[in-house]
Structures are given as structure tokens and as C-alpha cells.
Fold:
Amino acid sequence: MLSFDDVGASREKDDMRKPRFKRVPPKTGLQMRESMYEVLELIYQFKALRSHHVAMHLPNRHERGLAHSLRRLFDHGLLDKIDDLRKFNALYQHDTYTLTKKGRQSLSGRDLPPRFLFLEGGLEIKLSREWDHSMMTIDLLSNLVAGARQQGIQVVSAEEIYSQAQIEHAFVFPRKSQYTDRRTREVRPYTVVPDGVFGLSYPNGKTAYFAIEAEHNKPHERFDDDDPASTQSSTKKKFKHYRDINWKAVYDGLGIGNMRVLVVAPTPTQIENKFKVGRKVVNESHLFLGHWLPTVSGQDVPTIPQIIDAPWLRIGLPPEQINAPSLRAG
Structure:
């Protein structure tokens, strides 16, 4: 059985209150049990996970026992906590955990589950610089995975999708508009990189694929919306860019036959206003589906696995649910 420290040390007293963001030097060795590997592998799948999301995915674990495991893994250096939570401190009770190098090493040689947040093929998540935005994507994936499994819907991870891709940067979606590279003079398409990608395989055998676009900022438009070379963020530009993707090239590159775009914003009002902006870009579309997803703003963020059953907004069309096969691409 794997041990990282001296197993002959005296037992640790766990009834003392420990500092939240500081590791307490362990007085006992860590005997790795399967239940601890279960926690590490879960966080490995999502790259980062809030403690109550860990509990949501492990419903058979006792709350106190799970909290004890997380603390032990943290104190022994296999897990780390997101420092951004320091600014919320007592207002926010759930810690967010990531794997350390030592934690990743402990998983070496194990048959690991596929990753839902898979940072290859062009996908990027900058937890250190864009924590709120990154956690919107992770929270959405976590909630959808939990909700889908409760209904017998299989979630296809980004890593599984990429494993069947025909090109290296399969998650970098080409747009129809092009530009000339200044150095090579090569004509290339402008591109869109989603925040995440996943699929839902329904009991009837059909599979729907989705790109995730987490819109953390309030809805707004820019004067340079029609400039494809501009890097300035804009709700209107975001809808334009997805509208103008060469979807046939995306499908061919990923080896799939459909994809829709899930757009999430922090509040119901924001997502409604974003879709009003979207209607200026396209009058009616099956491509975009919108819902709100709360972010950390000095208060707790609940788990909402029921988002799998929720009605998602569409542009110019009635809301639609994603818990049943719906393969129209746009």
C-alpha cells in the first residue's frame, strides 16, 4: 500500500481546528486507500473541483469522512487549494481543490478515467489568471455530468472526443473569414476556441455534442464588432464568430456529425440580455442554447445538477432541454 511519509509516526489529533489555507505538518503517514484515489481521480477529471462538487459526485461518502480525506490529502501535499478564495474567506465555505505534482505522481500507473477538462487540441483554461471564468466552465461540466448520470445519460468527455479527432488542433474551430499571415504570407482562417467540449450519449443510441462558452462579463457591444482581426471582447462578436464557423470542417476534424453551443452567464438577466444581443446577429437559430450559472461573488455557489433538465434559451425559438436527443446543428 502506497505511503508518502513515515507510517510509524504517532496518530494525528484531528479534533483541533486547522488553518484553512496552510498545511499542517502531518504527524502520521498517509496510507493511500482506494477512497482517496477516488477523490484524486475525480479532481483529475475536472482539473479543479469545489469540495461540495466532490461530494455531489461521491454521494455514498459520509460528509465528515470526505472532509477528513480532503484535509489529509491537502496536508500531505497531494492537493492544493485555489488562493483566490482567500479574498472571500468566511463568506465562502467551500474550498476549491487542484492536484499538485505529488498528487499527479500518486496516480501514475493507474487506469485513469477520461478527462472532462482536457487541455489539448487547442483548449485552454487559465485558472491562475481567469479563475471566475474558468470555474464557470468547470462548474457547468461538473453539474451536467452529475445530472446526466442520474438520468442514465452517458457523458462523452473532451478527452474521448479528441481521441477520435482527425487533426491535431481539433478544438480550434476555423471560421469562414480569412487573413494573410504577415510573415509567411499564407492565407489562414480566423479561429474560435471554445471554453470546453463534451457530448451526451442518450439511451436511444444518439449522441449530441456541445461547445461551452462561459460569458463572465455583462452583455455589451463594441464599435469594432465587424473587424475580424480585433481581439476586443464583445457579446455581439462572440455570437458572430460562432455563427461564422466552418462547421463542416469542425465535424470532419473531430469525426462527429453535430455540435451546438452552450452559452452561460452569471445571472438570468445577463443571459437573457446576451441572447437579445445575439438576435441582432442571427434572427433565429438552433445553434445557441443559453442558461445562467452563478459565480463566486462573495457568497456560496450551490450545486445544480438539475441544469440537465432545465429549459435552455434559444434565439428566436422556444426554449429547449438537452436531456433528450436533439441533433440539429444550427
Summary: DSSP finds nine helices and eleven strands in the chain. The chain has a mean pLDDT of 84. The two ends are 52 Å apart (CA to CA). Residues 165 and 254 are 4 Å apart (CA to CA).
